[in-house]
Design goal:
Length: 281
Amino acid sequence: MIDLHTHSNFSDGTDSPADLINKAHAAGLTAIALTDHDTVAGWDEAIQWLRPGLALVLGSEISCQTSDGISVHMLGLMFDRENEELRSVMARTRENRIGRMHKMIARFNLAGYEITMQDVEAQLSDGATLGRPHLADALIAKGYLKSREEVFAEVLHNDSPFYVAHYSPTPEDAIRLIKGAGGAAVIAHAMSSLRGRVISTDTFENYVQAGLDGIEVLHRDHTAENRIILADIADEFGLVKTGSSDYHGNGKLNQLAEFHTDPTEFEKLEARTTQSRVIRR
């Protein structure tokens, strides 16, 4: 089984990379991709704890935004982490998250929520990429809500008055950056309306022209109809079809390996990179 989308506590997951590797091994996975948001900081620990029989696909989930403000997430897989242009964009995105968090906290304060940046930072692991899930955890710790699912459903969804956008590249630019770093670009949960507005199916042609390699078809947030539509688009443009858990540990209901990628599809994806950058023991 191959799971190409997971998170550790170097972004908004709750498991360390070491724990994630151990759980992947116990779940019977043959390959797992570590795709923390806008960072590669967890790669070295994951590599260190890798076991025989389990391959590690190095990656990151790149935050993107369309020109009309729709949030899109692009999985960059098997790219060169030393590529300066991609490193710079990811760093800028992470830095911008700090100013964005201050703005969101201010909005919560005006609405009567007693929460501070220190409360949010207390939810982060060392070196983690700051994000809305950490604000959610702070709200839970304060007793305002009970779970991340509840927080995002009620006050932190993209259409919430508390939501603030942050700098991120366009999906097309993210694809070009990933391809420029020798990797493969796969659009994640493209039809997850639970996360707010979603892109039009017409948009995929632009992404293909930019170099898109694959579509995450199998995902918990996609309906059966969504999956059929996305699979048809992938077939139309000759794209790889992937499936994955988007596992976050205790942060979400998603279970490790609940969806996975066919090995033949993964071979196609690997062939579209300049170098596989899959670590095997």
